[in-house]
Design a protein that fits this description.
0% strand; 45% helix; mainly alpha; 4 helices; globular
């Protein structure tokens, strides 16, 4: 039978124009479904036990980063997410009582294009 073995993935077209178009379409569809699940959570969270409502994260933050720093931060976050409790995905006996699947979205993107040339004081 089919079993979920992972909750996460990333999509890239690796520079191929046709693959980039396909990756973009797939990315939009996946994100729409994820955001629909998030909206459903917002609409139904009052039906969840208090401990789950308080444990859920709904946060936003902003940083000034270079492309290299953003790439490094993303790699560190993904390492942290993927290295915690990996055995629980493949071995249900490792899941503690009361545990449920949790989706965590990590999105990062520049809010504006970078200025041309180096900037001093940034």
């Amino acid at each position: 039978p089919w079993r979920m073995t992972s909750l996460g993935f990333s999509i890239s077209g690796h520079g191929d124009p046709e693959a980039e178009i396909a990756a973009s379409a797939l990315s939009r569809m996946v994100r729409e479904r994820q955001l629909d699940r998030y909206r459903r959570w917002l609409e139904t969270r009052t039906t969840y036990p208090r401990e789950w409502r308080e444990a859920a994260i709904d946060a936003q933050d902003g940083l000034y980063l270079t492309a290299g720093e953003l790439e490094q931060l993303g790699a560190e976050l993904m390492f942290l997410l993927r290295s915690r409790f990996p055995e629980r995905m493949t071995d249900p006996s490792k899941r503690p009582p009361g545990s449920v699947p949790v989706e965590m979205l990590v999105l990062s993107y520049p809010l504006s294009p970078p200025a041309e040339g180096p900037r001093s004081g940034s």
